[in-house]
Amino acid sequence: MLSGDRRIFSINFSLRLKRFFLDSLRSSSKASNIIIHYQSAHSRVGREASETRTMYTFQITLHARPPQAAPGGLIALRGRTFPTLAVPREALSVGFALSFEDASARLAQLPRLFIEPDGSFVWVSPSTETTWQVDGVLYDRDGRLLFIDLKGRCPAESFDRLLAACGWPGTGMMCQLTREAVFVDEATFRAIAAVT
């Protein structure tokens, strides 16, 4: 403690309460006699967490992985070599184990995801996180979700939530890298998308 009327308070509280408290102190005549040391989980811990989380950057077409998908060749991307999948053309007509409508309804449950009746959607970060956005379009055939075009950037945890809305992990996934026009399995996609 400091001598005199100065007191040190250690306060840990949310950002809203912190703002309210500081605004109250500014209007108080005793505010000049108080020194406040605070730790804000939203500012310090939240910032540290967002700096260490894995972010994915991608432009892909997401498919349910058919049993006919087999190891393919290798592709060099961003200074590294990655394995690809060989997928017979007829295997691409097998869709997800859910309908377009079910996928739309599941995606609509994700916070800050806005989906149109035609299957186009945008999903944005909360204001408290590093900015990210995913744009997508659902496609169907014969009453089933066939594939999803995805482009953007998001944390790995958010990508997992998007996959879960499509039946993952019960349904295996594979991705076609749009620019390279090759298929890769989920693990390879994650390795590629995490490279900046």
Radius of gyration from CA coordinates: 24 Å
- Helices and strands, in order, run as EHEHEEEHEEEEHEEH
The major sheet is characterized as:
7 strands, antiparallel
Q: Could you tell me how far the N terminus lies from the C terminus, measured between alpha carbons in angstroms?
A: 48 Å
What strand line-up does the widest sheet have?
6-7-8-9-3-10-11
Which structural class do the helices and strands define?
A: alpha+beta
Average pLDDT number: 80
Strand elements, count = 11
* Residues in β-strands, percent: 35-45%
How would the global form be characterised?
globular
Treating each run of at least 4 consecutive H or I residues as one helix, how many helices?
5
Total count of domains = 2
